[in-house]
Amino acid sequence: MAGTSRKPLFPNPFYFFLLIVSVLFVVTILAYLIIPEYQKALMHHPEIKQSLSNKAFSDWLDRSAPTIIGIEFVIMLVLSVVAMLADDKFDRTKTERDVEQHKK
Fold first, then answer.
1. Please, which residues have CB within 8 angstroms of residue 61's CB and are 6 or more apart in sequence?
2. d(CA 8, CA 11)
3. pLDDT digits (tens, 9 = 90+) for 75-97
C-alpha cells in the first residue's frame, strides 16, 4: 500500500464552487421563506424588541431575495455545465488508463 495515492475530494474545482453556491442558494431560499413569519411574529408581539438593522435587513431581503435567488440559479447552471465539460480534463483515472493502454 505504499504506492497508493489519495484521490482528492474535489479533483474538479468547479464542483467545489458549485457546492458553495448551492449552499448559499438553499440558505437564501430558507431565509426568504422565514422572513414573512418573522415579521408577522413581530407585528403580533410588540413586546419583542427589533433593532433597526434587523428590520432593514429583513426588508432588504424581502425585496431582493427573488433577484438573488435568480442570480444564484444562473451561477449554479453555468458552474454545472462548466464542471461537466471540464470533467475529462480533471479525471486522473482516465488519463492513467490511457497511458496504460498505450503501453500495451
1. 31, 32, 35
2. 5
3. 999 999 999 998 888 776 655 65
Within its chain, how far is the Cα of 82 from the centroid? Answer: 15
pTM of the model: 0.71
Q: Residue 1 burial (CB < 10 Å; 0-12/13-18/19+)?
A: exposed
| Domain boundary assignment for the chain | 32-44+52-88
pLDDT digits (tens, 9 = 90+) for 20-55: 999 999 999 999 999 888 888 777 877 666 666 677
Taking CA atoms, 24 is separated from 1, 21, 41, in Å, by 39, 5, 25
pLDDT at 57: 86
Looking at 1-104, list the stretches that DSSP marks H as alpha helix, in order from N- to C-terminal side.
13-44, 52-85, 87-90, 92-103
Answer for the pair 80, 25: CB distance below 8 angstroms, yes or no: no
